[in-house]
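Here is a protein:
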Amino acid sequence: MKRALAWPSRRLDAQDAHAYNRGWTITTGRFGSRIYRDPRWDHVEELRTEGLRNQPAADPQPALTEARGDARVVVR
């Protein structure tokens, strides 16, 4: 039984090493499953809002004028 459970672990060692080298966290789950997570995603929203805050305001949209006449379209 141990031998049957050991092969997935050996098979995933290369993926685990790759994830550790990138600084990812690895969570081992049931039946030998793995969850690989990049902790940098925790800061994406903070960086995005900071970047938007530092950008100049967008140009205002031009005012829409009333359409003159009939704006209906006939499709045949």
